[in-house]
Description:
By secondary structure, this protein is of the alpha/beta class. It has helices spanning about 25-35, 50-55, 65-75, 115-120, 130-140, 155-165, 190-205, and strands at about 15-20, 40-45, 85-90, 105-110, 145, 170. Strand 5 (about 145), helix 6 (about 155-165) and strand 6 form a beta-alpha-beta unit.
Amino acid sequence: MKLPSPAAAPGSRTVCLALTGASGMAYGARLLECLLAAACRVWLISSPTAQIVAAQEMPDWPLSLPPDEAREQLRARYAALPGTLEIFGHQDWFAPPASGSSPPGAMVVCPCSMGTLAAIAQGLSDNLIERAADVALKERRPLILVPRETPLSTLHLENMLRLSRAGATILPPSPGFYHHGKTPGAELRVAGLIDFIVARILDHLQIEHALLQRWGEGK
Length: 219
């Protein structure tokens, strides 16, 4: 499934990024940075549980603040990047991604909790994240889910299969090790593993990046 061309859809470079209550908040933070660096317009939504997880895993990230304060601090943090950032509340039903009349070019849920994945699989829309994902599916826009859980129960697997059949991409954060945990600009092993997953997400969004050397290059 390809992103619509900018000429065909004015919002094709708009990506809705949702953060939910699973471990792996660094994936979402790095993805946000890379999307803004690629001059995308990002609509950011975080669940209340994601804010709790972020406070534990990334205490210097202002995700737990009210949307207006978080927007101000995150915009200041990424001010040097060419993209634009908008942050919507978890229950902001008047936000653009809540309607099929103004869907983003694509949506990514990263990290994606099993609760959020189950709700999307069942077509629930009890909050803006679930509704935005429902809109992405019904409008045939790319929906990428990055589920972070192990081991996976039969229910988890059945929900993933249901979503895959509905058109979503299931992209578990399972990094490869053939690059030895080192990517350009991210020499630390953990940072390199994070960039591996973010690079795969960007590939599926058809957004150019230089996070890692592609297989077979440089030989």
